[in-house]
Amino acid sequence: MNVWFQIALWKRILGAMLLGVVLGVSWGEGVVAIAWIGELFIRLIRMVVVPLVFVTLVSGIISMGDPSKLGSLGVRTLALYLVTTLIAISIGLCLAAIMQPGTGVDLSAVAPTSVQEAIPLSERLMSIVPENPIAAMAEGNILAIIFFALLLGISLLTIGDLGKPVADFMSAGAEAMLRITHWIMEAAPFGAFALIAQLSGTAGVGALLDVLTLALAVAVGFLAHMMFMHGLIIMKLMLGLSPIKFFLGARDAMLMAFSTSSSSATLPISMSCAEENLGIKPVVSSTVLPLGATINMDGTALYVGIVTVFGAQAFNIDLSLADYLLVAGSTTIVSIGTAAVPGASLFLMAAVMDSIGMTPEQNAAVVGFILAFDRPLDMLRTVMNVGGDLSVSTAVANWEGEFDREAFDLPRN
Ligand code: ASP
């Protein structure tokens, strides 16, 4: 038992994932027999998302002491989220233009898949204000929960001593929720094992061979964005921090993102990595990360950009510079609106393809084509989504003076 706990968690998760691949490949479809383990694990982490976000956000704001600081924190967070997303899309579009993944691909025989309409931006903005905060929690509407928690935190600060019992309650709640997250993380090797086994036993990886160039463009974009944007520019040049330490500190969350394909299911683990490994103080981790899990999706943006250009190439649609700009703009909106769950962007990218004049039939054929191998690419883009949130949180924590450099620099094995 002790030997098990002496092995670093990330090694246990990674080892379990490798075993999962072996089991999936050798057992094939029969692997669905253990699918319940993966499902149980996802349910466990989903269970803590809403209470964790709510109580840590309220107690984070109280710990800040001065609500006026929220303004600069908010502006910096949103600005950096937007810039990193735009850079991810630009990388994706350049790669798609250079590597030409769609040229020569014949989509005429593909069974079209029905695509879902994107929720209009105005509706999404309106739903940030909950009609009923309890209902917002029951539905897991993170933006509405953030909105209400912000108001509650600020109001507790302004009522002084009177607010103390509730403030204490919230900070004890935050500690308790993080403790539960830790316990759940101990189950991660088993969950990741079952999730990966199921994936490699049923579909996915093999189908990737059909679309090698597209997958390659996504993988190259992923590496370029993570290494240059987050590693070199943000960590090294802007913050003077070691990119390696950053990735080591973020690796549990990134591994979780990889095995669950869901930024929202990864959120509790991202928050614990931020506070414990990256030296990000609770006020930043509790505000910046839930917001990022909901609206900041670098990987999704990169992917949607590449697939859109892929579709245009497959249907011989010439794209002008103006088209590329249109794709960049609409992809930003789509990535903000994408739910943080597996496969979410797949059904929203029709909105982007619409913007360059592709017909609904063409959109449906593209989605039908990539459906079969979306999962492995979803795993990559979710790692990028989560990595981006953690990198922006590290930057904002530095700028706001809410950063513990010693904790960040601690050696990790
Ligand atoms: N699976 C992604 C996430 O949860 C969203 C997407 O489909 O792009 O971050």
Give a short overview:
This protein has 413 residues and is an all-alpha fold. The chain has helices spanning 2-6, 9-27, 35-64, 69-99, 121-126, 133-139, 142-158, 164-186, 188-202, 212-238, 243-260, 263-276, 282-295, 298-314, 321-337, 350-355, 360-371, 374-399, 405-409.
What does this structure look like?
By secondary structure, the protein is an all-alpha fold. The protein has a single domain, classed as Orthogonal Bundle (Proton glutamate symport protein), CATH 1.10.3860.10. The chain is built from 19 helices and no strands. The longest helix has 31 residues, at 69-99. The radius of gyration is 21 Å and the shape is globular. The two termini are 20 Å apart. The structure holds aspartic acid. Aspartic acid (ASP) is lined by residues 261-263, 297, 300, 338, 340-345, 378, 381-382, 385.
Q: What is the percentage of strand-forming residues?
A: under 5%
| Count of domains | 1
Q: CATH superfamily, called what?
A: Sodium:dicarboxylate symporter
Q: What Rg, in angstroms, do the CA atoms define? A: 21 Å
CATH hierarchy class name = Mainly Alpha
- Looking at CATH, which topology would you report? Proton glutamate symport protein
Question: What is the overall pLDDT average?
Answer: 88
Question: How many DSSP helices?
Answer: 19
Which stretches of 5+ consecutive residues score pLDDT under 50? none
Beginning-to-end CA distance, first to last residue: 20 Å
Give me the strand/helix succession. HHHHHHHHHHHHHHHHHHH
CATH architecture classification name: Orthogonal Bundle
User: What is the makeup of the main sheet?
Assistant: none
- Count the E strands: 0
